[in-house]
Specification:
Structural class: mainly alpha
Distance between the termini: 26 Å
Number of helices: 13
Number of strands: 0
């Protein structure tokens, strides 16, 4: 399949479904930039280690580098996304189901962003395409052996994020116990600057592959080509997804940063470094093992762990509760929306 930009534009002119898929991929990636990507720079901005504009520029650059770099190192996450559902059968119906899945994911993301909740675009997208696959092929549309990696990733990201946040906080406190506060703040600032870049890189590595995988799946369906998670991604798709994530962060990131790193927990610079360290480790392990995890889950649970490292009362559990409720509702809500829209689209179109 010729995936050059010119060939895809020509294909879109004769296959409207291709154009719709591309627009929806950009839409879902844009919403991810507003609701998920800000978590990568939240602590650095909240603790004033980075200015917002500087943080956004770094996030844009390293999201792009992460998209490209990790894709050439490992496509494990992309392979999981391709393999967890089965859209085999009528290609037209499959396209309708896939488009419905992405629309549902976008709608849920906008809803959560409006209330300042860092919703997981990864999980909303996974739930949406699962609902669409079930609408098309029943429960046979779900591949349990691959889908279970989502469950592993969810449990791992929450437990590891919280535990490592607590551990890194205690470790940094011990290491910094012999130096004065001013020196500790300077070291923490440098650490957070470096870790913000690493987090943006890993966000691009994780979420970039997910959204590009869905785009490639849609393109393959539109022309009846075979596609697998081992296929390479064209450079133009990497650039488009990277720009969409960055634009989404610029437009809507402030609301999520405010909820996650300013209202939920009051953290110092060294605690921001501890939270970022925890998130980096969690995302790196997940990316290399093919577990599709959410940056917002990893980051938010790490910040909770950091806050609990000082005192459980240091965490605003009211805000934390609202976030957890949104996380729990993401799978059934997006799955049902994806299923219902897929059934409707298959009837109407």
């Amino acid at each position: 399949m010729d995936l050059t930009l010119g060939a895809v534009f020509a294909l879109a002119a004769t296959h409207p479904a291709v154009a719709v898929i591309l627009v929806l991929v950009i839409g879902v990636t844009l919403v991810s930039g507003a609701t998920d990507a800000p978590n990568a720079i939240a602590t650095a901005v909240a603790t004033r280690c980075l200015r917002p504009v500087t943080a956004l520029i770094l996030a844009a650059v390293f999201n792009f580098v992460g998209l490209i770099g990790m894709t050439y190192v490992s496509t494990a996450v992309a392979h999981t996304m391709f393999s967890m559902v089965d859209f085999s059968g009528d290609t037209h119906l499959a396209l309708m189901a896939l488009e419905a899945s992405m629309i549902g994911s976008i709608a849920w993301g906008v809803f959560c962003w409006f209330f300042g909740i860092p919703c997981s675009k990864s999980h909303s997208l996974i739930a949406g395409i699962t609902g669409g696959a079930i609408a098309m092929n029943g429960w046979a549309g779900v591949v349990p052996g691959e889908w279970v990696k989502v469950v592993y990733g969810l449990v791992f990201s929450l437990l590891a994020g919280f535990a490592l946040g607590w551990i890194f906080t205690k470790l940094i406190e011990k290491l910094f116990s012999t130096i004065n506060r001013e020196t500790g703040n300077r070291i923490s600032t440098v650490l957070q600057d470096v870790l913000a870049c690493a987090l943006a890189f890993l966000h691009g590595a994780q979420d970039g592959q997910k959204f590009m995988s869905i785009g490639m799946m849609g393109l393959a369906m539109a022309i009846g080509a075979e596609m697998s998670g081992d296929a390479g991604f064209p450079m133009w798709l990497m650039v488009v997804c990277s720009l969409a994530i960055s634009l989404g962060t610029f437009i809507g990131g402030k609301r999520i940063i405010k909820s996650v790193a300013m209202e939920m927990v009051d953290i110092d610079k060294y605690q921001g470094a501890a939270a970022a360290s925890s998130t980096v480790v969690t995302l790196l392990v997940s990316s290399l093992t093919g577990m599709p995890v959410s940056t917002s889950h990893c980051s938010t649970s790490a910040i909770m762990g950091v806050g609990a490292g000082r005192s459980l009362r240091n965490v605003n559990w009211g805000i934390a509760r609202n976030m957890v409720i949104a996380w729990v509702l993401t799978f059934p809500a997006c799955g049902i929306i994806g299923y219902a829209l897929a059934r409707l689209f298959m009837l109407l179109f």
